[in-house]
Amino acid sequence: MKSYDLITPEGTRDLLFEECKVRKETEDILRDIFTSHGYSEVITPALEFYDVFNNKTRTYSQEEMYKLTDGKGRLLVLRPDSTMPVVRIAATRLKDSAFPLKLFCAQNIYRCNPKMAGRDDEIMQSGIEIIGGEQKRSDIEALSLAAQVLNCCSSGDVRLEIGDIAFYDLIIRQLNISEDEEITVRSLVSSKNTHELTRHLDRILGAERENSKYAEMLLRLPTLFGGAEVFPKAQKLFQGTELEQRLSELKETFDTLCTLQADDRITVDLGLVSMWEYYTGIVFRGYIEEYGQSVISGGRYDTLVGNFTKEDMPAIGFAANLTAIVDAKLRKNAYKKISRADILVYADDNSLIKGMKYCSELISKGYKTEFSSCSAQEEAADYAKAAGIKELHIISSENEETLKIML
Amino acid sequence: MEDKKTIRIALTKGRLEKDTVNLFEKIGYDVSQLKNKGRRLVLEIPGSGIEVVLAKAADVITYVEHGVCDVGVVGKDTIDEHGGRFFEIFDLGFGKCRFALAGKKGENFYEGCQVKTIATKYPNITRRFFQAKAMDIDIVKIEGSVELAPLLGLSNGIIDIVETGTTLKENGLEVYEYVSDISARVIVNPVSMKLKKNSIEQLVSKMKNQL
Lengths: 407, 211
Hints:
The structure holds two protein chains of two kinds. Chain A is an alpha+beta fold. Chain A has helices at 18-36, 83-91, 135-153, 166-173, 179-190, 194-205, 207-211, 213-220, 230-238, 243-260, 306-309, 322-331, 352-364, 377-387, and strands spanning 40-41, 47-49, 67-69, 75-78, 101-110, 122-131, 158-164, 225-226, 266-269, 282-288, 296-300, 315-321, 343-347, 369-371, 391-395, 403-406. Chain B folds into two domains: 2-95 and 183-209, 3-Layer(aba) Sandwich (D-Maltodextrin-Binding Protein, domain 2); 97-180, Periplasmic binding protein-like II (D-Maltodextrin-Binding Protein, domain 2). Chain A binds chain B through residues 117-118, 157, 159, 161, 191-196, 225-226, 267, 269, 287-289, 291-294, and chain B through 62, 65-68, 85-91, 188-195, 197.
């Protein structure tokens, strides 16, 4: 039988040394941001029941989840995101605690991606959820935390982009489009494919396309992205409709955020739609110039809690893709190569206790000290050179004094 | 500040490359490097802030998706077959052809209840087309001339790109049904679209004006 004992599954990888260090450091920076704002950490199991991720609000496709069965034959998945498990906790163990809940979670998620495309199947995410908070305040807080996270992710150009899926949803409700067709329309809006969207609407709406104000809005929606200049354009287009109200609310959030953060880093995209996510209102994404897809994604999900408790509750959250952020940092060489130890201590056969004690002494003085596991002094010297350790200290029964060799 | 950013654009080697280079020439870009490229794969359009990369169709999508290229020119056939996370913002209108279901002339493809076999270079498109008809089919992936498969009796039909239909006719095959229209599209990486908005919009509007 063919054996795969020398490699890791596609989409996963081992992290060594600097990679671990940058990962842990980045994780800690985010953890500090979250805990200093009063968020409490939770860890959920990597294994969950399939049903947690398969409800009315959000169905993950079969293809994108890693699945297995438990001893009773029940279907399990490796969690494809952390929001659902956190909401599950909020709806069960935390249901009697003081709301709003402010939780954060830093853990791997698993996605079954198309192979050979260079995508990660195991993704480290760190993010927050605000469950049961008043909308306006929670929106501002989540967004400003996301902006802070984004600023820690890159030394280059970054953007935090906000939108609201209500625009698309309100427009589509006014148009006579069947459920099947709507999925196509949605994906065309999402990919900013206005030329095919025009053709498609012509086909399914016929004359209504030319005459309908809402069809016109739908066609323009994907192009309404950029800085503050988007708002007056949208205002003109949405005039006299129910979208106006949402637009002025989004503008207010946008302005608040611009005041709080460097405003050229905040942008807006009114064409953001919820492809398969559970979002119900404001949505946002973070981009860094070093990575080709968004590294932060989040939004409001007011109907998700209801799946677990039968009662909806306002909620908002986001997650940062740490795997991508760390990757970008490493590629930019924005890290120092770490040396294993400052000092290597070699003790001869009769001085092992003395050697160990000497190590502890050095460590307590703040030196990174490695106790040599080599059997001879020459071996220890070669090892120190190869490992880039600058000092070798020899403890022997013949000499009372420690011999210090600089390498 | 934003306008000085270089845009890297990936072109599908071959006909789409030629058509796009002609379009660039009409815009007034210096395309001398592109026309005498030798064996180089990364080329420059001097003074335009544009760098051109030449790649195979499916690779154009991969490069754009990962953001190592900002913009790509690629056929709709490749987009439909490979999918991916990018914006498809513009139909260039050239490289036009169609996907079609074809087979031996005079035969009724849908006749009988046996599971049909389809030979194709595009298994995903084929799967989707028949899934929409709720039909189970066997797909055989062929790398070269797909037309051979029904002639040799390997498959009941083919799903392939049809331009003029000459190859089909000369081999005693005919189109049973059209699947979809194909032409060259401009795709953009989602992060580039946001971070280099002005530069990309300027380039695209220049291209639009010349069509």
